[in-house]
Known about the structure:
48% of the residues lie in helices and 18% in strands. By secondary structure, the protein is an alpha/beta fold. It folds into 2 domains: 4-138, Response regulator (Rossmann fold, 3-Layer(aba) Sandwich); 153-199, no CATH class. Helix 1 links the parallel strand 1 and strand 2 (31-36). The longest helix has 39 residues, at 112-150.
Amino acid sequence: MGKINILIVEDNPADVLLIKEYLSENKHIRQDLAEAETLESALGLLSHYNFDAVLLDLRLPDSSGLDTVRKIITPYPDTAVIVLSGLQDEELALQAVRFGAQDFLEKQHLSPASLSKSLLYSIERKKAMQEKEDLLHDLTLALKKIESLEGILPICLSCKKILTENNQWQRIEEYIRDHSEARTVNMICPDCKNDLEESY
């Protein structure tokens, strides 16, 4: 993996120093680190820079709990969010993951190895999820194109009537009247006008 961009969202300076120290112990991962003490400043950084991962404290001066997770993940769904908390609360951890967080780490159990492992796995999981979503999006578009092709109506080359789903030939004006709210207006296109003029 190349260099990874990490945003640390934490208002406790001691915790920030500890996280940075743990990250620096992994010499195999090149990192660019940015810091934010509030949710507002974190959202400001996210709007201007691309981050691979966000290490997010659940208790910030301007936001707390799962609402903090939601406000990060909703506008930036491509970024892997790892929740950091001093709370020993498994239910909160599960809820954070349900909201879209890739992992949940308790600060008191944090170590250089667990932090690095969580970062690498979370980023890779997020990439895999995004690839699946992109593939599903492409598949949905392809299915819509197939449906539109299946909806093409056979038209007689001679009289221009349409073969309906009841296997009946119907004039185009009648078909449009029966199947939509659109109105038909009788006009003559330039080509037909020229043909008519030449025939006289």
